[in-house]
Amino acid sequence: MAAFVKAINAKIRAHPVLNYVCSTHFWGPVSNFGIPLAAVADTRKSPELISGQMTFALSIYSATFMRYSLAVSPKNYLLFACHFINEGAQLTQGYRYLDWHHWGGREKAGLTGAVEAGKETAKEVVAKAVEQK
Q1: Taking the domains of the chain in order of start, what are their residue ranges?
Q2: pTM > 0.90: yes or no
């Protein structure tokens, strides 16, 4: 049985693509892609839910590992791509957080909601006036 496993392993390691797919240089970044996928999905959620501290920490984390992915030998471009996407998503989230909490985004949203409610009320009043004629 051990000879069979050694023979299969040698055949896999002899093929460059299969060797790469069976390495941690491939599976590490692939398993790590859940972080940027979640971050990109979170850009559609309300900015009230964003944690400024966690966004900052994940931005530093991704910047660090972007640098690391190019410093190792051989360079791990898949890991770089993973953290590049995450860095972009975290910077977007950071902007949304600052806009909502520090640059008046919450107040703008409140005014927009009040204007929309006023428009609906005006439509109801016009509809009732038309009915009474």
Answers
A1: 2-102
A2: no
